DNA sequence: GTAGCCTTCCTAATAGCATTAGGCAAATGC
DNA sequence: GCATTTGCCTAATGCTATTAGGAAGGCTAC
């Protein structure tokens, strides 16, 4: 019996690709098994269960996204860095909708700590260095930036912006203008 | 044989409640049938299929959310209105996580047009009247506000803010301060 | 080289889910 | 009171995840 050569890594990659094609929630152990030409049960020698597999895809996506954002931000500061971060983030989400959905899945605390999630937070903080916002407001700004990025991408992907003719890229650019403005004029405590 | 008195309305309500308890994606035809003490197949006299049922929950949630936001915003303007809108939105999402997830599900265009989604957009535009932002930037601002609200709530619900001690309500308040600032200083086209 | 072991794959089985077809009985309309 | 509609049933199909237990490939130690 010829072995199919399944490994956790290949499984995770295949799951990520399948997610981008058909949606993260439609990634199924059965479909992956078919793709590798093995029986479903065989995959359980490599993964604990379906949730385990999805978690691996999430970790892969978080790492990839962090890499791309890091590359985009390198050597930039201020609004330049903000726009580079934001564009890299949105670009990844649009090229890899399934992986992106995975990256947004809830991880148990231990897994989250071992993920690239920390790098995301760090890089966002790095952006804010150009705006000189002290703690605790810096954390508030990190959360706001994360919210806008994720929110925009998420609504856009869900088709929520299709009811208006206004160009979605243009709105994105203006949103980043407004964010830059908000960070430069960060409101003092009333 | 005593009839259970299932109706589409009762089914939809039960599905919404179940969603809030166990999560929207864990709402299942089987669980609902158990709840009503009937067989699964019986529900198909009332709904077309599971997707149809989920759509009904989405429409219910969109309408409820629009009602609550409308009530909160009534009689307010400027930043007052912004904060009232945002707080009502976030409050609904936290009290009804399952319904909220439903409200964010992708609807086919026709259903979307018949939904309360339009009211949401209108109310957001109403908020912006206090800031006198002309088109097309007004649409950009609508999209930005929607992104922040949805993004924040979504990340918060997914536990993404749990890795830092900073109070989540405080960050929210400061985010709204910053949004108000961004809208008041809406950047001119460079 | 071969004996033994670990790993990869298999078959078989269970269980939960969505959905359809076809039938009986209760509720409703006239 | 009878016919029709409607609500519920049983039965079946097919997809999914998961576990148990077995056989054979491939590597390690002698």
Automatic annotation (TrEMBL), chains A, B:
Classification via PROSITE patterns: HTH_TETR_2
Pfam families in the cross-refs: TetR_C_33 (PF13305), TetR_N (PF00440)
Superkingdom classification of source: Bacteria
Domain HTH tetR-type: 5-65
DNA-binding region: 28-47
InterPro entries per the UniProt record, alphabetical: Homeodomain-like_sf, HTH-type_TetR-like_transc_reg, HTH_TetR, MT1864/Rv1816-like_C, Tet_transcr_reg_TetR-rel_C_sf
Keywords: DNA-binding, Transcription, Transcription regulation
Protein name, as recorded: WHG domain-containing protein
Organism: Actinomadura monticuli
């Amino acid at each position: 019996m010829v072995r199919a050569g399944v490994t956790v890594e290949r499984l995770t990659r295949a799951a990520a690709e399948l997610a981008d094609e058909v949606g993260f929630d439609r990634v199924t152990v059965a479909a992956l098994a078919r793709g590798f030409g093995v029986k479903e049960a065989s995959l359980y020698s490599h993964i604990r269960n379906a949730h385990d597999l999805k978690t691996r895809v999430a970790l892969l996506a978080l790492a990839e996204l962090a890499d791309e954002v890091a590359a985009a931000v390198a050597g930039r500061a201020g609004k330049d860095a903000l726009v580079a971060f934001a564009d890299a983030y949105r670009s990844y989400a649009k090229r890899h909708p399934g992986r992106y959905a995975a990256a947004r899945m809830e991880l148990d605390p231990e897994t989250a700590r071992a993920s690239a999630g920390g790098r995301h937070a760090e890089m966002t903080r790095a952006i804010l260095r150009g705006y000189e916002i002290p703690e605790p407001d810096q954390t508030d700004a990190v959360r706001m930036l994360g919210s806008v990025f994720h929110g925009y991408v998420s609504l856009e992907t869900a088709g929520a912006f299709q009811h208006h003719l206004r160009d979605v890229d243009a709105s994105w650019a203006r949103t980043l203008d407004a964010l830059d403005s908000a960070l430069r004029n960060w409101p003092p405590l009333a």
